[in-house]
Amino acid sequence: MPTHGRWEDGGVSVPVQSSVLFASPAASSGPEFVETPVAYDALVLASFGGPEGQDDVIPFLRNVTRGRGIPDERLEEVAHHYRHFGGVSPINQQNRELKAALEAELATRGIDLPVYWGNRNWEPYLEDAFTAAANDGHKTLLVVATSAYSSYSSDRQYREDIARAITEAGLQDRVTADKVRLFFDHPGFVAPFQEGVDAAVQTFLEQGIAPADIHVLFSTHSIPTADAERSGPRDVDWGEGGAYVAQHKAVAANIIENIAAVAGRAPVGGGTVPWQLVFQSRSGPPSQPWLEPDINDVIAELPAAGAKAIVIVPLGFVSDHMEVLWDLDTEAMESADEVGIPAVRTATPGIHPAFVSGLIDLVLERVDGTPAAQRPHLTALGPWYDVARPGDCENVRLGFKPAAAGIAP
Known about the structure:
This protein is an alpha/beta fold. It has 13 helices and ten strands. It has two domains: 3-50 and 89-182 and 352-374, 3-Layer(aba) Sandwich (Rossmann fold); 187-345, Rossmann fold (3-Layer(aba) Sandwich), CATH 3.40.50.
């Protein structure tokens, strides 16, 4: 694959890409959409990872914050979230269940593609997954990451992880690795959220609460505003918050617009249920601007806005991992109790059949080379690119590192 120059990171020398690093021939030139069929022979499920016992918590958090020089005393401030649940993050078990569900869906459709699983921050690691796939004789790999939106941590960092893992495992000449497109507005991802909002709103309506008094809070992870502004292709004016905020708002608006279609209550249509995009799980220093408003601050203001019910939608999350269980089910629910407003938190996609089926549909887009015009999407922002555009999702602090599934830098 075409490259030029070298780049050094921690003593590891890797190629600097002039096209798309470690890509299949169909994706190597960097088209926005790969409309040529590719004979993939294995899938790699890539995720964040999490501790599975009290002794794992601090080592895991060191992995998450590697390179930032954060002392263990400060990591303990976050560790208590995990320790509250026995030191076990639910995310690894959720990934085991998702892997099994994907394998079952593939078998049902008669598709012979083995699924390997690797994490960014805990065992099994991504490099282990690539090594296992290569040792089993698989060369043309397609990565499915458990993240739907554009940002450094949810997109580019996964692509950097792919490049790093392949390099550190010494597989540069043995495998290629593409990645399915970001799926924020794919029907399979949105359907579980739509069902949850429909059911929650319907329940509150049946309790006699007017649509205008039911406030829907779409919650996602806060990120540094500088990173948000650099999310998505740089040649597009996404507005405040970059593509990251634009994508969330587009999906949230679509869900609100479609409540009436399923709930069967005409007054709900036309966007008459008030909604807002809110943020959670901020972890940066106070001096660094992060996306706002925080969900708990918004809940505190809802009585003055006349709210009689709250629907909390974890729109930025694929499964019920720690930031859903703690930040929403614990802290946000406590905030709702403090202001005396009933609240319900809707489900994440998890292993919802529509989500699992949708992920396999995304795989088949690349296997079949489905034309972009035929790819399903629920907002005007989709379908998203197969190959990330130059400069997409830069991390201001870290700069550009080699990344797979995208054009340099």
